[in-house]
Amino acid sequence: MRIQKMLAEVGVASRRTIEEMIGEGRITVNGKLVVALPCFVEPDTDTIHVDGELVATATGPKRYFLLNKPKDVVCTSNDPRQRTRAIDCIPSIGDRVYCVGRLDADSTGLILLTNDGELTQHLTHPKYGVIKTYVALIDGQLTGEKVEQFKKGVWLDGHRTAGAMIRVLKRTPKSSLLQIRLTEGRNREIRRVLARLGHKVRRLHRSAIGPLTDRGMAVSDWRELSANEVEQLRTAGGFVSRKQPTRKTTVKKTGRATVKRAERATAKTTERAGVKKTKRATAKKTGRVKKASASRPPSKRPATGRGAKPRPGAKKHTRKRGPAPKRSARRRR
């Protein structure tokens, strides 16, 4: 398998970005620097490092874990300082997984661990707009003007941060409790933006990743995601749902209105027919004759036909018959 294809599948970066990283001398295979393409690797046997970090490349079933990360735990695969890693909090996984995105050691909250590189790309890339929700406790009171600055974006390292959704949950004379929702995750972005606005972050906790929340999970708790939760993450990441058809069936408004009118007309016709049948059946059983309506008097036109009675004074017309034809006598032999 080509190295750029394999690294893209495990979520390192896009193929084009990986080719640029190879040109910069940032990728090694089995301890040797990759200097040219094409380069073919075996995911199950070769050891690949990107910027000195081991990449989980073994193929196998897709696994998805959600960890409520405690403080002083790092989200890297290899830590030179030998600190506790996020993957160390999930014992006996059996498969090689990695963290989706980063959460600094001083922060707590949700972190995803998986070996699904395609989903990782969608959850971490800003263009897919997967929202991460944080709760921050800061020093001082955040004014309305600073809230607007945070929403519009702040310049960091020559780049303007993407707009954020921020809400003040609680204010005291010495502190403010904020809810912050972001679609991008730069290195320590929330802490740096608030520091630029003149506020120090005392505590930062990630409470949600897309549709997944920390409800019912204490710090250090972890669990494997259900199939339904994985499908929700895929939908949040811009994937087409596996359970829904790819083509949407739409009904035109004119067609729907026509159908409704036809249904109403059919119902009225059926109702009228039922009323007529009921009246006829009742008249036959009781022997009642339908009375003439007061608004419509009976017709004065003379009756016609074989059974009609002649009017008084009218001449009786009789049909004259001629003489009966003579029958010829049979000849006797």
Automatic annotation (TrEMBL):
Residues 244-259, 275-293, 308-333 have a biased composition (Basic residues). Residues 1-59 form the RNA-binding S4 domain. Keywords: Isomerase. PROSITE patterns: PSI_RSU, S4. GO terms for molecular function: pseudouridine synthase activity; RNA binding. Residues 236-333 are annotated as: Disordered. InterPro entries: PsdUridine_s_RsuA/RluB/E/F_cat, PsdUridine_synth_cat_dom_sf, PsdUridine_synth_RsuA/RluA, PsdUridine_synth_RsuA/RluB/E/F, PsdUridine_synth_RsuA/RluB_CS, RsuA_PseudoU_synthase, S4_RNA-bd, S4_RNA-bd_sf. It holds the Pfam family PseudoU_synth_2. Residues 260-274 have a biased composition (Basic and acidic residues). The keyword Lipoprotein does not apply. Belongs to the pseudouridine synthase RsuA family. PANTHER family: PSEUDOURIDINE SYNTHASE FAMILY PROTEIN-RELATED, RNA-BINDING S4 DOMAIN-CONTAINING PROTEIN. This is RNA-binding S4 domain-containing protein.
